[in-house]
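for the writeup, i need someone to sanity check this before i put it in the appendix. the sequnce is what the collaborator sent (i think, or maybe the updated version? ugh). structure was predicted straight from it, no edits. if anything looks off just tell me and ill rerun, i have time this weekend
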Amino acid sequence: MTSPDLRTELASLTTEAFRPELADIDRLPTLDIARLMNGEDAGVPTAVAGRLPQIAAAIDAVAARMRRGGRLVYAGAGTAGRLGVLDASECPPTFNTDPARVVGLIAGGPEAMVSSVEGAEDSGELAREDLDALGVSAVDTVVGVSASGRTPYALGAVRHARALGALTVGLSCNAHSALAAAAEHGIEVVVGPELITGSTRLKAGTAQKLVLNMLSTITMIRLGKTYGNLMVDVRASNDKLRARSHRIVAQATGAGDEEIEKALTETGGEVKNAILTLLADVDGPTAARLLEESGGHLRAALARAAR
């Protein structure tokens, strides 16, 4: 049985608000409901746009920690936790990162990705245990994700991470949230009440996905994981990605198919290295050395090669 205080707290949240004008939505034709939902979703990017300065500041801080060897850790429950796990899991194939560099924690563990784990989101202690199991330290970043901004698991993660000296970011979809207040970088993307009352996998979930996309993608750009808008650190782990690797080298260098295949073979399929061998006219080992000396930044490696 929920406490009166909790019921009052939830009733005050924008994400939980009831919209009487939609009380008969179930009587509408399917196309009309789809139009309503699409119209609701259209406002999400505008809400995110209003928080771009806070997002950018958080990204610069995250990138600075990761340059020192730190990790990016997402922590959330339910939809928020799943979105964090999704974003983290897509970094290795996209940016060739070590899977341990960007980590998604969800209250209740892997089982909670596909089913509800009762009570997990209500445990700040569980968040502390999960962070301690990772060995989170001052060089890392922990991003608490919670639509309500009050989820105990996300709050517990941010508070514990901050006590450990880690950089903290709090992403919520309600103004004046406890989560944003607890973090060094608070990002509150207020998208308003949901089409289905309290179903924060909708607009709130979309907003969280957009912000997490920015946090990871732009951080990786800052870390030299791209060359322009090309995924030069992509990991060619299947036929599609091998074809994409070939195309990326072609787009970056303008070289012919035979030259590209030779460069990729010489560099063990590493796209960034292959581009450097072609643009700087160096061999594979030299390309690897130049990139290492340049912290993995292809533009910096090209400048070194031109000296």
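The mean pLDDT is 92. DSSP finds 15 helices and five strands in the chain.
thx in advance!!
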